[in-house]
Design goal:
mainly alpha, 2 helices, single chain
């Protein structure tokens, strides 16, 4: 499952890079933050 997610994530990063013109590292950080928020919600 994690592998599929990783492919998904890199695709999202690529899309964000194209759309927003932000660097790949910034996009990865944004996605990581979003994941943390989702996990916090799931815990509650």
């Amino acid at each position: 499952m994690k592998e599929g997610f990783r492919e998904d994530q890199s695709e999202m990063v690529g899309n964000m890079e194209v759309v927003g013109g932000i660097s790949k590292s910034q996009a990865t950080v944004l996605l990581a933050d979003e994941e943390k928020r989702r996990k916090k919600r799931a815990v509650r």
